[in-house]
Structure formats: structure tokens, C-alpha cells
Amino acid sequence: MPKIKTNRAAAKRFKTTGTGKVVYSKSHANHILTKKTRKRKRRLRQSHILDPINGRSIARLLPYI
What is the average pLDDT across 39-46? Predict the structure, then answer.
């Protein structure tokens, strides 16, 4: 059985915690920030945990991470 390749696009966007949860960072935080409120930009800086149902599909893309 050959090794499974890691999806490199997913590997750059998602990481797993020690307990196996999938963590990601929100989009829309790079440019055109003048029209976004301070509160919205502050929330975009934080990392978020993916819900378990979507986490299973990401786990298939990242077999060794």
C-alpha cells in the first residue's frame, strides 16, 4: 500500500491541536481594512476551531498532520 499524499493547500490553512481538533484562521483580514470595524478586525486575528463534521473531511486531506 503506498503512502497517502498530504493535500498541500489544506496543510497551509489548517493545523491540528494535541487533542485532534482542527484549527484555522479566518479570511478577509489582509487588505481593504479601512472599511472594516475595529471589532471585526480583532475577531479576524483570532484562530478558530472547525466544527467536528467539517474536521473529518479535513482529516482526510491531512493524513499525517
Answer: 96
pTM over 0.90: no
Cβ contacts of 49 within 8 Å, gap of 6 or more? 17, 21, 22, 23
pLDDT at 44: 96
Contacts of 29 (CB under 8 A, 6+ apart): 41, 44, 45
Residues 6+ apart with CB under 8 A from 44: 26, 28, 29, 36
Owner of C-alpha cell 484562530: 47
Question: For 2-64, what is the HEC assignment?
Answer: CCCCCCHHHHHHEEECCCCCEEEECCCCCCCCCCCCHHHHHHHHCEEECCHHHHHHHHHHCCC
The cell numbers describing 30, all together, are: 489582509
